[in-house]
Amino acid sequence: MFNILQIIEKNLADGPSTISLPHKAPPPTGYRGVVLLDPTLCVGCGLCAYVCVSESVTGASSETEYQWHYEPGRCTFCARCVDRCPASALHMSAEAPPVYSRPGELDTSHTVPFPACKRCGKPKRPSSESLLHSAAGQIDDQARELYDLCERCRRLHYQTAMKSMLSGSLGEERP
Question: What is the 8-class DSSP label of residue 102?
């Protein structure tokens, strides 16, 4: 009859006996893994952070950039942030995240710099094609150029256009 210590000694001497499978099982259709951001599409609106109930997605704006931060350890993988992103900058990984041992090990941060205004060069909020279409519908090239201006330059453009339109209509009424 074997003694338990002999069995333990034999198991330790033989090493692990787990057989690795040749392929990893594919995730099911519609699997929701960690949230991923494409900084080139992000408009820095902060809507993802606003709708995140677990506060795993946070964001902070300055005049020149938007700081996006994601903590997968707090995430409930509900996909609300992905569904509400007006610029389609967020999507969820189709794979399970790697195992982590320390809190914050898988945290992700991105800095989204604001592009320069085409007229004055100051940073302005970015706008994506999908956001422009949802906000304004079908837009022409002239309207698209206005979205490349900062708020101040856009306001100056409208004021100048209104002034010339009013002075033109007043000039026509005079005999």
Answer: S
- Percent of the residues in the chain that have a pLDDT greater than 90, as a whole number: 45
Q: Taking the mean position of all CA atoms in its chain, how far away is CA 33?
A: 15
Q: From residue 9, give the alpha-carbon distance in Å to each of 3, 15, 17, 50.
A: 10, 10, 14, 57
Helix, strand or coil for residue 55? coil
* Residue 165, burial from CB neighbour count under 10 angstroms (0-12, 13-18, 19+): exposed
**Which residues fall within 8 angstroms of residue 71, CB to CB, at 6 or more apart?**
56, 58, 104, 106, 107
The set of residues, in sequence order, having a beta carbon less than 8 Å from that of 109 and lying 6+ positions away, is 67, 68, 69, 70
Structure tokens at 45: 């609106």
Do residue 61 and residue 42 come from a single domain? yes
Domain for residue 73, yes or no? yes
pTM passes above 0.85: no
Instruction: Give the separation between CA 91 and CA 110, rounded to whole angstroms.
Output: 15
Could you tell me the pLDDT band of residue 103, with boundaries at 50, 70 and 90? confident
Q: Which domain holds residue 80?
A: 30-95+104-114
Contact yes or no for 151/124 (Cβ under 8 A): yes
Same-domain pairing of 84 and 151: no
